Amino acid sequence: MIGGLTFIFIVVLSLVALIPRYRSSSTSPPPPLAQSDYSVQQFQKFCDENFSKLSNLKNILPTKTSKQEILETINEMDILTSNTRSISELFSSVHPDEKMREIAENCEEKISKASTEFYLSKDIYNLVNQYKSQYSRDSIAEKRYQEILLDFNQSGASFLDQTSSDRVNVLSQEITQLSANYSRNLNSDSRKIQIM
Predict the structure, then answer these.
(1) CA 186 – CA 158 distance, rounded (Å)
(2) What is the pLDDT of residues 37-46, one digit of tens each?
(3) Around Cβ 134, how many Cβ atoms within 10 Å?
(4) pLDDT tens across 128-155, in order?
(5) Residue 50 CB: number of other CB atoms within 10 A?
(6) CA proximity to 4, closest of 196, 181, 187
(7) Pairwise CA distance, residues 49 & 46, whole Å
(8) Given phi > 0 = left and psi -120 to 50 = alpha, else beta, which region is 55?
(9) What is d(CA 89, CA 106) in angstroms, rounded to the nearest whole number?
(10) CA 137 to each of CA 55, 74, 141: distance values in angstroms, whole numbers, following the listed order
(11) Longest Cα pair distance anywhere in the chain, in angstroms?
């Protein structure tokens, strides 16, 4: 009989294997999931390195001088965020080592906070929005640009004042913390369901 968490772990691994990942040359790949000797220190290093790369990309974004360069940088940031968040979510939910789950949960919260702050930034929104009237011949790039603008608009960066933006950021962090607590409580439940 397969336990509930084992079954979920197998399903999630199967689904993750089916999802194509698009990587740029400078984003680091997610850690290998099948590697049994993957240590807590290695995962902590993976999280720290990716967070550092994310911060560096955010810092160099204002130096970009074209719509294409901004798109490439934000796309690289989104890929890095997605790869780090997805592995962290998986490890925080199903990894058998409690320390690994704790580190993955912290990594997930840190990445979520950085992403929220990015998409609430009025300065970055203004930087991206200044190219709104320049249409790209590349329809895929233009579609991606419109998606990024939509993300900024949906987060409130285009219309919120600083006080409201700070409040949204705090609420987002509270939601992330509540979600992590819920997952932690759910994962620590050792009850099982037998399916016949």
Answers:
(1) 37
(2) 578 899 999 9
(3) 11
(4) 888 887 777 778 888 888 898 898 888 8
(5) 23
(6) 187
(7) 5
(8) alpha
(9) 10
(10) 30, 19, 8
(11) 62
